[in-house]
Each structure stands twice: as C-alpha cells, then as structure tokens.
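Human: I'm a chemist; would you kindly supply sequence and structure tokens for a protein?

Assistant:
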Amino acid sequence: MAQHLQDTIRLHSGVNMPWLGLGVFQVEEGAELVQAVKSAIAHGYRSVDTAAVYQNERGVGQAIAEALAENKLVREDLFITSKVWNADLGYEATLAAYEASLEKLGLDYLDLYLIHWPVKDKYKEAWRALETLYKTGRVKAIGVSNFQIHHLEDILKDAEIKPMVNQVELHPYLSQQALRRFCKEQGIQIEAWSPLMQGQLLDQPVLAEIAAAHGKSVAQVILRWDLQHGIVTIPKSTKAHRITENASVFDFELSTGDMDRIDQLNQDQRVGPDPDHFDF
C-alpha cells in the first residue's frame, strides 16, 4: 500500500511507476499548463501523463525542463507517459509517432508509452511497434489504454510482450471490477483516468458522508479508494491548491466498510466514450 506521494508499484517489466500522477487531458498549451506541471513536480509529484492528441506535449516538455532545473532533479527522477493516437496505429506510423512525441517533449525516452484506443484491425500492428521500441531500449515500459477484456485477450494471443499497464476510465460510478480482476490475473497494472469523473462526483452524498467522517474532501476519498484497491491514478488539475490537495491522501485510511460502500456506488456509467462504440 502506498504510504507516500513518491511511492511506486513495480511493473512486470521491473520498472517502478508512481501510484499517483498528474494528468493533463484538456489542458491547452500555455502558461497555465506549464505552471500546473511545475507546481506538481515542486510539490513532489514524479509522474506526468500526456498524449499526442492532447496537443500539449511541447508545454509539458517545457515545464519538465524548467522543473528539473528549479528543483535540482534529474530526468530519471520523473515518470513521463504519452500515447499514440488512433491515426498513427500502423507499425511504421507508430514508430514515427513515438519519435514525434519525444521531439515535442524534448526527451530522449519515455517511461511509458500507450496505445490510446483499441481501434479495430489496427492496434496489433501498433503493439508490434511498441514491442520494438521496448526491445530496443527506446522506452522503459509499454501498455494500452481503454482496452476491454476482449481487446486484451486478442492482443495477448500474438504479443511477444504482455502490456504492462492498462489505463482506463475508472471511478466509483465505473469501478471496472471484472476488468480489474482480469488485469490482476495477467499482471497488467490498472491505471485510472478521470478518477473524479470530471468533477461529477464531488457532491455525491455517500462520498460526502465518508469524506466528512475523515475530515477530507470527496476528491481525496476517491483517490484513496483507488490506492487501496491497488489502482494507479492520475487526477487532472491546473490549480496549485487542488494539485496539493489531491496528493494529501497518504495520512488516512478508508475502512473496509467505507470501501464497500464506495464499491456499491458502481453504475457502469461513463463520462468518456465506450471503447466498443467509439467513432474513431
């Protein structure tokens, strides 16, 4: 169980991934993005998650460079993730997309590179490219995003290397229990995007009651629920006080009763696209 903001989980590749990171989905290039990433790193975050389609890799890269210098850190102190977009899911196209992301980020390697969506008839060639990047030492870990059980079963039939991470929409209204069980059996680490359901759960009565009992915010309770379930989580925020608040989840513990009550909130409700019915 994570006890500190910089605690990590060891992926099956042997790479250590922080339990908690900063997501930057829908954060546009510019000063707000740079300041958010720098604030997170200054506060002790060591993981930042972006993607080619977010169109903010240059800003993230600028923030990383400035934060390393200002906080006397080295590149190896950070865990940086990006993702290949749907239009680039061919073997050669994925390899080129990886190099383009590195160039924008100003980095020599990524810690984790993911296939963003399971586009039918395309993700296997992209996975072959990720395996090449991994085997040649260009990336530390590889994985997928938004993959359902049947997508994972399909990719595992031909894969030389098993995905190390599956990043999916996951929050108390979409707890993904069957997928979590499958990934645990396969040694694939689950990572939650939109853990706070884009803010839609912040007034949820059960969560508010549990939060009040612990003297914490609803957001902190949700992130703690993630961690106690062994789920890596990457809440998004651009506000320094929220970034700090989201990291203040290591000084309390939810009871078994709390965890069960939150588990029972599941409604299989998404805020993002259904991976099986997404108009790519």
User: Anything to note?
Assistant: The chain has ten helices and ten strands. The chain has a mean pLDDT of 97.
